[in-house]
Amino acid sequence: IEVKEEKEETKPILDVTTTVRDEYVEDEDLKIEIHKLINTIDSKQKLIEVKNEIEDRFGKIDKDLEIYMYEQWLEKLVQKLNIKNLRQTKNFIEVPLNKNQAENINGEELFYEITKLGKMFRFTSRLNNLYIILDTVKLDKHYVYYLIDLMKIIEKCRKDNQNDKI
């Protein structure tokens, strides 16, 4: 009896393309291998290593595959920071920080660092939660890059941050 390995279907936290196109690799087993490699991305260094390995074996990756790789890194950052329920609409992405998370952040530093990224971020507060909102209309680059920068800023501004770099 032959047992075929099932491709792991995991839904990304945001609406990004997570397919490996047939034009890039046709073989399903190789596609599964690429997905597994991408799933190991948990840092900028690991992203570079995986990207180099995939490109060494299969050729230059396209923009969608690169964004998929960054989205995987973003998922790990969001998990590490224990951020739940990112909300994506047609025009914005909302990053919620609950009361405990918001209280554990140096707010002044957070606002200052985020404003250095540009005017695409805004803030609101509802029911003791802080919401950081990324307006996704007219961005210079894909929103996943801004969100990674945002997660790194949130980590940097945490009061309990013991040089726990992400």
Helix and strand sequence: HHHEEHHEEH
Number of helices: 6
* Protein structure class: alpha+beta
Task: Give the CA-CA distance, first to last residue.
Answer: 44 Å
Based on CA atoms alone, the radius of gyration comes out at: 18 Å
Total number of beta strands: 4
Shape descriptor reads elongated
Overall mean pLDDT stands at 89
Description:
The protein is an alpha+beta fold and 166 residues long. The protein has 6 helices and 4 strands. It has a 4-stranded antiparallel sheet. Strand 3 and strand 4 form a beta hairpin. Helix 3 packs parallel to helix 6 and helix 5 runs antiparallel to helix 6. The relative contact order is 0.14.
What key phrases describe this protein's structure?
4 strands, 4-stranded antiparallel beta sheet, 166 residues, alpha+beta, disordered N terminus
How are the elements arranged and paired?
Blueprint: H1 28-39, H2 44-58, H3 63-80, E1 87-88, E2 92-97, H4 99-103, H5 107-117, E3 121-126, E4 129-135, H6 143-157
Antiparallel strand pairs: 1-2, 2-4, 3-4
Helix pairs in contact: 3-6, 5-6
Give a quick summary of the entry.
This protein is an alpha+beta fold and 166 residues long. Helix content is 46%, strand content 13%.
